[in-house]
Amino acid sequence: MSGRRVARSRIGSAGAVLALSLAVLAGGCEGERQDDAPGSGPGAGEDVVRFTVPQGAGFRQVADTLVSRDLVGNALLFRVYAKVRGDDGNVRAGQYAVAREAGWKSLLDDLVAGRVETVPVTIPEGWTLRQIAERLATITGLDVAEIRAALETEGEDARLNVPGPGLEGYLFPDTYRFSPGTRLEPVVQAMVAAYKRLWTPERRARAEELEMTEREVMTLASIVQAEARQVSEMPRISAVFHNRLRIGYLLQADPTVQYALGDRRSRLLYRDIDAVADNPYNTYTNAGLPPGPIGAAGVAALEATLWPEDSDYLYFVARPDGSHIFTRSLEEHNRARVEARRQWDALERGAGGGGNGNDES
């Protein structure tokens, strides 16, 4: 055997020994977690260490970060270990939370699998894009104005294949889990995907029975969502609007006027209605449904819109407790308004102020 071959043999043997040594070292570093499933995450009472792997970070930078967090004692050995495993180029960006006692194997498994730390993000039912933008700012780290501009970009409805106009009403209200610093695009895609899952074959068939488009259903559902304070009343509120649409009455839904005004008000005045008389979302001055949803309707509102109560009510007025008085004629409605006003006045006297919505429906 030539000297060159002997040298190569020794180098190869040394590499094998190094790889074996690193594997043993990694196993030894597992400590008490070596029997856990890889990347199972910190357990109760464990010392949790958080760190971030930036987008585009090289493995040297990752190893240095782990050393600075006292998760790895030797950056060079950890880099060699990752290279031997073939994972030094497979680490995913994101924010991580791991137990300080996590060994090299668990740590690298988490980094390769992208088991990033996530936090719950709740979007309440009925929220508008403006409100949603404020909540998404907390998870993306972006400015609210920047998020609103992105959400309101022309053509986003077509790009994401939702009825429009725009994305209003198509970011489904739910509790999601995202990693802090997540980009806006995947967040929006997740919310739109959740919305699309609402449209089962049964619901699409029902919309066809009602001779309503997807946009019309979601528009009416958003109004039902905004009007109802009690889920049990949603089918009856829906029936009122279906009945009014069928006979050609104006919807006269306060939330649509508030949407046109750009904010929710505790008390809607007639001058507020007049101020946005020409706005297409004002259902006191425009017949039929507005151009699109006025907020994010939940499942209950959608179900109530597709399957309204079988009743002939045409009016309702709100009580202070959130329930409504439903009536069939204008005469009955006027009496109900007097009764509701009496209840609101009593509440205001007790609370020292406040007010109710106009509720002319």
Written account of the structure:
This protein has 361 residues and is mainly α. The chain has three domains: 36-117, 2-Layer Sandwich (Dna Ligase, domain 1); 119-197, no CATH class; 204-351, no CATH class. Helix content is 49%, strand content 8%. It is built from 15 helices and six strands. It has helices at residues 3-28, 59-68, 75-85, 104-113, 129-140, 144-151, 156-159, 184-197, 201-209, 214-227, 234-247, 254-261, 270-275, 299-306, 330-351; strands spanning 48-53, 94-99, 119-122, 175-178, 315-318, 324-327. It has a two-stranded antiparallel ribbon. A hairpin with a 5-residue loop joins strand 5 and strand 6 (324-327). Helix 1 crosses helix 3. The longest helix has 26 residues, at 3-28. Residues 5-14 and 26-41 have low confidence and may be disordered.
SSE inventory with pairings:
Elements: H1 3-28, E1 48-53, H2 59-68, H3 75-85, E2 94-99, H4 104-113, E3 119-122, H5 129-140, H6 144-151, H7 156-159, E4 175-178, H8 184-197, H9 201-209, H10 214-227, H11 234-247, H12 254-261, H13 270-275, H14 299-306, E5 315-318, E6 324-327, H15 330-351
Antiparallel strand pairs: 1-2, 3-4, 5-6
Helix pairs in contact: 1-3, 2-3, 5-6, 10-11, 10-14, 11-14
